[in-house]
Amino acid sequence: MKANIVVLPGDGVGPDVTAAAVEVLEAVAREYGHAFAFAEHSIGGRSIDEHGTALTQECLDACRASDAVLLGAVGGPMWESPKSAVRPEQGLLALRKGLGVFANLRPVKPFAALSEASPLKPELLRGVDMLVVRELTGGIYFGRPKGRVHERGRVRAVDTMQYDEVEIERIVRLGFRLASQRRNKLTSVDKANVLETSRLWRETVEGVRPEFPGVALEHLLVDSAAMQLILTPSRFDVIVTENMFGDILTDEAAVLAGSIGLLPSASLGESGPGLYEPIHGSAPDIAGTGKANPVGAILSAAMLLRYSLGLEAEASAVESAVSAALAGGDRTSDIGGTRTTKEMTNSIVDRVGRLTGTHISVKENS
Ligand code: IPM
Ligand code: MG
């Protein structure tokens, strides 16, 4: 198959890890006879430096016209002053909104080979296999008014948490549907004891519930959910939640996997291209040093193959190659090893070839 993929390396380790993911996609194309064309654009801090804005119209148009978008990370100390008028993160938020990708899927399934990489006891991690479905284009990230007001000699800052029932319904329905394709359990996370948006959220979840009689539903308050994630993580199947709660809980859930560098995500809309990015940030301190873990980006590429291109066998091959590399002892420094980004990537690329059986590895006898 032919596919046009836009690559947005972004800032910090973004270029390191997207290069790794592109290498893996190129290996998949070779092994399975696909033609993937890659077009690179700038976003975030790099786009601010080049164009004065964190996302150009040209970049957004290119993303919209593509089959899928692969993104690294945005942000860094150079653009961090709280007084800056333009910030790298604005580019990412505008891209998510511009593509209409309201559903952010973040699977968390620790690799057996890495049970020692997590600070949690191995018995707590047994059976952990969850999918966090985070609402991505609403809530406090986008609500208006937003900004600063000067009043009677004081500065006041305002953010607005806001949801309408249609926004809630579509993400919740997806959560139920995904749960019905997994272990039939859905946990809806909110703060309904305090927030009006959460009360509407909970009411909307109850409204959708009758469509999925086979799915067991529970409501959890976000503070309690944060605790349960560490105390009994294996109880979760699909978690559905609003934008900011999902942001916070998935960084916490990354501890279960052992490193935030391992976790991928897919952001999907009703139609149009999906956006694929590791959940980690730009880690400017290790950018270009070869220390970045490429696995989160590579697994995001696997999700791209699955959700945007419908290539399930290829997606599974990439995931198996990652598992095999980790089982074989390949580790970047974040998970206690010494492999560089490049070495880790080569090992995975090599295994993608071996899995299809058509590739003769140059390293086979080493
Ligand atoms: C994430 C990140 C982003 C978010 C930032 C970089 C805007 O933390 O994708 O989780 O908060 O959504
Ligand atoms: Mg985050």
Offer a quick outline of the entry.
The protein has 366 residues and is an alpha/beta fold. The protein has helices spanning 14-32, 45-51, 57-64, 88-99, 122-125, 165-180, 196-208, 222-231, 243-257, 295-307, 312-327, 341-356; strands at 2-10, 35-40, 68-73, 103-108, 130-135, 143-151, 154-160, 185-190, 216-221, 238-241, 266-268, 274-276.
Observed structural traits:
alpha/beta, Isopropylmalate Dehydrogenase, disordered C terminus, binds 3-isopropylmalic acid, binds magnesium ion
Write up this protein:
The strands form two sheets. The chain has a ten-stranded mixed β-sheet with strand order 2-1-3-12-11-4-5-10-8-9, with helices on both faces. A two-stranded antiparallel ribbon has the order 6-7. The chain has helices spanning 14-32, 45-51, 57-64, 88-99, 122-125, 165-180, 196-208, 222-231, 243-257, 295-307, 312-327, 341-356; strands at residues 2-10, 35-40, 68-73, 103-108, 130-135, 143-151, 154-160, 185-190, 216-221, 238-241, 266-268, 274-276. It is of the alpha/beta class and 366 residues long. The model is unreliable at 359-366 (pLDDT under 50). The chain has twelve helices and twelve strands. Helix 1 crosses helix 10 (295-307). The chain is 41% helix and 19% strand. It folds into two domains: 1-108 and 259-366, 3-Layer(aba) Sandwich (Isopropylmalate Dehydrogenase); 119-257, Isopropylmalate Dehydrogenase. Magnesium ion binds at residues 247, 251.
